[in-house]
Every structure is written in structure tokens, then in C-alpha cells.
Design a protein that fits this description.
By secondary structure, the protein is an alpha/beta fold. It is built from 9 helices and 7 strands. The protein has a 7-stranded mixed beta sheet with strand order 3-2-1-4-5-7-6, with helices on both faces. Strand 4, helix 6 and strand 5 form a beta-alpha-beta unit. Helix 2 runs antiparallel to helix 7. The relative contact order is 0.16. Bound molecules: S-adenosylmethionine. S-adenosylmethionine (SAM) binds next to helix 1 and helix 4. InterPro entries: SAM-dependent_MTases_sf, UbiE/COQ5_MeTrFase, UbiE/COQ5_MeTrFase_CS.
């Protein structure tokens, strides 16, 4: 059985543990992200908005939205975006952003079939205990012809960079998190969960298996992050 540490979820990702861990990091979540990514998080969110190709008036679900920082970015397109997350602490920490928020579990979404023009999830799918079920739920709530964008940490493509990055994840990142985060242990989980996550091709296959078509990906920052896109057949 996986070991659980105070303030940190184990890799079997029990939903209660994951929600409690994010409640614990919520207070300084946005700041910690910007520090540990050396400011790249802003570029990744901008690139995610571009990949979504949103138009004014469209309805968008930002799933596992946390504090709504990406929801706000997507709203710049003129689309109507709702943030959904099962950590009430994360949603509460982002309430000042004034984006629509609905508490809900990615594995049993509180939305009707065919509700959204686009569904997106940033750095959330890796934390869901059954990502395949979440991908099927996202498909269910997307309108026929609608699209999915998954932004997630991935596998750097250049071997030397990959080795240095893994060193950073396992050694430096927990130390940096200790200086800025309200729950540094959670960043040990972050490093472990990134290492255990499928690479670009494997994730594309899982997205396609969940029923999405024309699945493609694009690497950001040399593959530190990958954006996967798919469509629901019309
Ligand atoms: C790393 S944070 C990402 C937050 C935000 N998308 C961002 O880009 O900053 C991961 C989020 O996934 C949420 N999460 C994990 N499992 C979930 C589930 N089953 N249902 C809803 N949210 C979930 C967590 O509560 C957390 O807020």
C-alpha cells in the first residue's frame, strides 16, 4: 500500500487525500507556481488559450481549475469560462478573481451532456485518481464538434535536458518549495507524480482511447509541458 505523508497525497491519488493536499497549498499556490517554473507558467497558460482557439460567446469548462488563474486567462478571449474543482480551498483562494466557479469532481461532472464548446484541464489530469474516467466525462459534457485541450507536465525531448530537469524536480524543487509554499511536502508529490506520468505519445493514446478524435500534441519549453488537443466527433 502506498505510504501517505502529512500534507501530501500518495501516488494512488485517493480523492480525499488529493483534495486535502490542495486545500493545504491553496493560500500560496499561484506564487509558488510562478517561482518554481521561473515565470514559465504565464507563457504556458497563454499558449493553452491559443491552443483552445476560443471565440467570444463560446462556453468553456476549465476543469481542475484550482484558483481559477487559467480560467481568467481563457476569459480574455471573450468566451464564457467556468472553473470547476473538488478542492473548496483552491476555489476559495481564487474567489477574488470573480470567475464563475462550480465545485465538482472530474470523475462525475455536475453538467449535462453536450454543454460546452471546449473543455480544458491544466496540470489537473495527473492528479485525478482515474484520468481515463475523467477524459470520458469531459467527452460527455462537450458538444459534438467541440474540443479538448489538456495542459500537463510531460517528458523533455532532449536527453541531456531531461536528465538535468529530473535532477531539478527531485532535488532542487522541494527545497525551493520549502521557501515559498504553504505546504512544501505537496511538492515532493508533484515531482513524483510528474515522473510517473505517461509521456506525450502514451497520453495521446489514452485520450484517443477515451473517445476523442484527431488527437495531437505540441511541446512547450522543450517538453516540460505538453498541450494535447482532441475533438468530439460531430
Ligand atoms: C496542480 S492544480 C492545477 C490548478 C489549475 N488548473 C492551474 O493550472 O493552476 C490541480 C488541481 O486538480 C484538482 N483535482 C484533482 N483531482 C480532481 C478531481 N477528481 N476533480 C476535480 N478537481 C480535481 C485539485 O484540487 C487541484 O486544484
Amino acid at each position: 500500500m502506498a505510504q501517505t505523508h502529512a500534507g501530501r497525497a500518495s501516488l494512488d491519488k485517493q480523492p480525499g487525500e488529493v483534495a486535502a493536499m490542495f486545500d493545504g497549498v491553496a493560500k500560496r499556490y499561484d506564487l509558488t507556481n510562478t517561482v518554481i517554473s521561473a515565470g514559465q507558467d504565464r507563457y504556458w497558460r497563454w499558449a493553452t488559450r491559443k491552443a483552445l482557439g476560443l471565440r467570444p460567446g463560446e462556453r468553456v469548462l476549465d476543469l481542475a481549475a484550482g484558483t481559477g488563474v487559467s480560467t481568467l486567462e481563457f476569459g480574455k478571449s471573450g468566451a464564457w469560462c467556468v472553473a470547476t474543482d473538488f478542492s473548496k480551498g483552491m476555489l476559495a483562494a481564487g474567489r477574488f478573481r470573480n470567475v464563475p466557479m462550480v465545485a465538482g469532481d472530474a470523475m462525475a461532472l455536475p453538467f449535462a451532456d453536450d454543454s460546452f464548446d471546449a473543455v480544458t484541464i491544466s496540470y489537473g489530469l495527473r492528479n485525478v485518481s482515474d484520468p481515463d474516467l475523467a477524459l470520458r466525462e469531459m467527452l460527455r459534457v462537450t458538444k459534438p464538434g467541440g474540443r479538448l485541450v489538456v495542459a500537463e507536465f510531460s517528458t523533455p525531448i532532449f536527453p541531456v535536458f531531461r536528465t538535468l530537469y529530473m535532477e531539478y524536480l527531485m532535488k532542487t524543487l522541494p527545497r525551493v518549495a520549502r521557501a515559498v509554499s504553504s505546504n512544501p511536502d505537496a511538492y515532493v508529490y508533484l515531482a513524483e507524480s510528474i515522473r510517473a506520468w505517461p509521456n506525450q505519445r502514451q497520453l495521446a493514446m489514452r485520450i484517443a482511447k477515451a473517445g476523442w478524435s484527431t488527437v495531437k500534441w505540441r511541446n512547450l519549453s522543450g517538453g516540460v509541458v505538453a498541450l494535447h488537443r482532441g475533438y468530439k466527433l460531430g
